[in-house]
Structures are given as structure tokens and as C-alpha cells.
């Protein structure tokens, strides 16, 4: 799941919550550099050692710029998560529920098994357990991703592949949950086979009506 700057008009310092204004032009390039540096720092050292001065050094921007715009490490993480949600890969639409869910599972597994991205997600999730703002940003990130992929379930219901009333968001959560368990708890391999099993189990449960409201 890549992240880049998104062009919007910037605001005067202090006119909006730090890290939530979407800039344009040079400010967008600075934001992109800072968020990339923040992701690198999180992946390398974790949330506890995230330092805005270090991020500024990595991004080759002034410390004042970083402190003025993001104020705190949690503000920086919140903006990083928002950017990741906006820039994540669009969902696959194959016309087959099994193939769509398998594509979703493989994307999650590939992301979480990547040395940088997996470490980044572990750090962010750890931070969210003790910081409300980071937790809010993480919830927003996953709400966007679930909404993006839930369309494949809705379309499967319309095609008659799944029972009417199937909760699309619950099916998508069921696909990724075993993969996050492997990342955060068991340490079992996050490979294509694990992804396919997760997708297959979610599909079978959905076809059996397990997610009907």
C-alpha cells in the first residue's frame, strides 16, 4: 500500500488540526517526503522511538516545518495513515467472488509480509493501542479499505452467489483477520497459501449464510 502526497490547497499554520490539511505544490512534495521518512523511521525503530527531528533529517526538510505542520508524533502517524488509505491499490473486480476475495487476501498478505510494510503496520497498531488519535486514524484507514473491497461482496449478492442480506463488510474483515493474526500473534508464514485459505474460509462461510444480518 503506497503513499504519496495529494494535492489540495494548504492553510495558514494553526488554522486546522496538524497533519489534516491536504497541501498542493511544493508543500505537497514536502509532505510526501516527510511521510515517507516517517514510514521508514517507524519501520526501523517503532513508535516509541519516533522523533520529529529525526524525521525532518531523513526528509531533508527543516525541523520547524515538521513541528509546525504535525506538532506531535501521533499527528504525523495520523496523517501517514490517512495518506496510505487514500493511495492504496484499488480493489480487484473479476466478476467472481472467489477470485475477488483471493485477490484481496493476497494483497493483504503481500503487504504484511513485506519487510518495511509489515514492520510499519506492527508499529502503527502498537501505537494505536495506547494513543486515541492514532487509534482513530487506524480505524479510519481500515474503514476506507473495507468499504473499497466490500463492493465485491455486494456484487456477488446481486449475482446470486451469496444470500441476500449478507453483510459485505463482515466478509472482508473475515478475509484479512487470520492474516493479521499471523502478523501480530502467531508468527506463522504470511504466504500465498495462507492468503488463499483465508479467502476460501471467508467465502465458504459467506455462502453458508454466516454473515447474513
From TrEMBL:
<feature type="region of interest" description="Disordered">
    <location>
        <begin position="1"/>
        <end position="27"/>
    </location>
</feature>
<keyword id="KW-0805">Transcription regulation</keyword>
<protein>
    <submittedName>
        <fullName>TetR/AcrR family transcriptional regulator</fullName>
    </submittedName>
</protein>
<dbReference type="InterPro" id="IPR036271">
    <property type="entry name" value="Tet_transcr_reg_TetR-rel_C_sf"/>
</dbReference>
<dbReference type="Pfam" id="PF00440">
    <property type="entry name" value="TetR_N"/>
</dbReference>
<keyword id="KW-0238">DNA-binding</keyword>
<dbReference type="InterPro" id="IPR050109">
    <property type="entry name" value="HTH-type_TetR-like_transc_reg"/>
</dbReference>
<dbReference type="InterPro" id="IPR009057">
    <property type="entry name" value="Homeodomain-like_sf"/>
</dbReference>
<keyword id="KW-0804">Transcription</keyword>
<dbReference type="InterPro" id="IPR011075">
    <property type="entry name" value="TetR_C"/>
</dbReference>
<feature type="domain" description="HTH tetR-type">
    <location>
        <begin position="28"/>
        <end position="88"/>
    </location>
</feature>
<dbReference type="Pfam" id="PF16859">
    <property type="entry name" value="TetR_C_11"/>
</dbReference>
<feature type="DNA-binding region" description="H-T-H motif">
    <location>
        <begin position="51"/>
        <end position="70"/>
    </location>
</feature>
<dbReference type="InterPro" id="IPR001647">
    <property type="entry name" value="HTH_TetR"/>
</dbReference>
